């Protein structure tokens, strides 16, 4: 018996080694090895800081001290302080600007998909602002809107006196609109390229058939392009509106959030770094995350409800139409009987 046991142990070890040396085991080990480092980095630099941020949001603390436990006081302050929750109203300007930005991008992309002259150069010029750093864009427009500088000089060429030019960054009636213009200028080209890529994926035979049937550019856009790129339009609209809640660079660089231009991110940066209220800033970040999630889910449900018929396949729509027609005929026969 003892000899059999001794002979079985090397056999078991050999079997385990053979399993580890097999192709399937090697593939599993390689996958686990390549996944380990990204997952470790993701946990260390994403999930662990998020857990600590949630923990800090229940404390009244700075960067240096441990602080004291305050419970939900920071979250209550987020909704009670006018300078914090009121700054979300500034995001409405950026939401409106995102709609204008998408409309312009869709218009310019539609022009280029119909083989306009010089479309390659035009596309490069439109996309170039997106390649510029956001901080650099802020400095460019800081001098562009300065009183007596670029914009006022351009208006002067059209006969507008310098005294009649408004203070673009000091007038609280128009300063947020001026700042939104910087975001529209920067991101229109990016959305235009996305729309153009979706439009180029449409079969050219559809355009040719529509032209033979006498359809103009507007009819081709309305009945061919728009239904084909509806998904990318909805996606861009959701991303733009969600991103408008976290606008930071234009108001921070150009006005430093003064004169009613402070967005939620600018106020949060001021509270965290200038006022050293880390717990309150962490609570603001979590509240903003919840608002963005709610807005994204709400937009998805809204567009799913609005475009539920357009999302269906043609065959499915035809089948349902036939079923409804058959149901009406059956009801009519019953009424006659």
- Summarize the main sheet: 2 strands, antiparallel
Low-confidence stretches: 5-9, 309-313
CATH architecture of the domain at 89-313: Orthogonal Bundle
Secondary structure tally, helices: 16
Order of helices and strands: HHEEHHHHHHHHHHHHHH
Strand order of the largest sheet: 1-2
Quantity of strands, as a count? 2
Radius of gyration: 30 Å
Helicity, in percent?
over 70%
Mean pLDDT: 83
Shape: extended
End-to-end gap: 91 Å
The helix-and-strand class reads: mainly alpha
Estimate the strand proportion: under 5%
CATH class term of the domain at 89-313: Mainly Alpha
CATH topology of the domain at 89-313: MetI-like fold
CATH superfamily of the domain at 89-313: MetI-like
Which structural traits does this protein have?
two-stranded antiparallel ribbon, 337 residues, MetI-like fold, mainly alpha, single chain, extended
Kindly describe this structure.
- Helices cover 75% and strands 1% of the residues.
- With 337 residues, it is mostly helical.
- It has a domain at 89-313: Orthogonal Bundle (MetI-like fold).
- It has a two-stranded antiparallel ribbon.
- A hairpin with a 7-residue loop joins β1 and β2.
- The protein is extended, with a radius of gyration of 30 Å.
Short description:
By secondary structure, the protein is an all-alpha fold. The protein is 75% helix and 1% strand.
List the helices and strands and how they pair.
Layout: H1 2-21, H2 23-56, E1 59-60, E2 68-69, H3 73-80, H4 82-85, H5 91-113, H6 119-131, H7 134-144, H8 150-157, H9 175-200, H10 204-212, H11 217-228, H12 230-244, H13 249-255, H14 264-274, H15 278-306, H16 314-336
Antiparallel strand pairs: 1-2
């Amino acid at each position: 018996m003892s000899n059999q046991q001794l002979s079985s142990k090397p056999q078991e070890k050999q079997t385990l080694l053979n399993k580890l040396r097999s192709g399937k085991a090697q593939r599993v080990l390689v996958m686990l090895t390549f996944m380990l480092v990204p997952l470790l980095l993701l946990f260390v630099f994403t999930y662990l800081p998020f857990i600590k941020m949630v923990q800090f949001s229940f404390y009244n603390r700075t960067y240096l001290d441990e602080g004291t436990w305050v419970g939900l006081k920071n979250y209550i302050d987020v909704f009670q302080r006018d300078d914090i929750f009121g700054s979300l109203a500034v995001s409405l300007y950026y939401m409106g600007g995102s709609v204008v930005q998408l409309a312009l991008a869709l218009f310019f992309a539609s022009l280029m998909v119909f083989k306009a002259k010089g479309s390659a150069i035009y596309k490069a010029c439109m996309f170039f602002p997106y390649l510029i750093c956001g901080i650099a864009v802020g400095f460019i427009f800081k001098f562009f809107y300065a009183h007596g500088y670029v914009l006022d000089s351009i208006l002067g060429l059209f006969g507008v006196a310098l005294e009649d030019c408004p203070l673009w960054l000091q007038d609280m009636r128009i300063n947020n609109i001026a700042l939104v213009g910087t975001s529209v200028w920067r991101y229109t080209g990016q959305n235009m390229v996305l729309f153009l890529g979706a439009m180029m994926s449409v079969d050219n035979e559809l355009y040719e058939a529509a032209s033979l049937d006498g359809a103009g550019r507007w009819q081709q856009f309305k009945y061919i392009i728009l239904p084909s790129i509806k998904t990318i339009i909805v996606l861009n609209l959701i991303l733009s509106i969600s991103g408008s809640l976290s606008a930071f660079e234009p108001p921070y660089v150009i006005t430093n959030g003064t004169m009613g231009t402070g967005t939620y991110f600018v106020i949060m940066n001021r509270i965290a770094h200038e006022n050293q209220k880390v717990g309150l800033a962490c609570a603001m970040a979590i509240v903003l995350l919840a608002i963005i999630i709610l807005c994204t889910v709400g937009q998805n449900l809204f567009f799913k409800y609005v475009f539920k018929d357009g999302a269906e396949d043609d065959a499915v729509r035809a089948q349902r139409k036939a079923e409804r027609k058959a149901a009406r005929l059956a009801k009519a026969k019953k009424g006659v009987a």
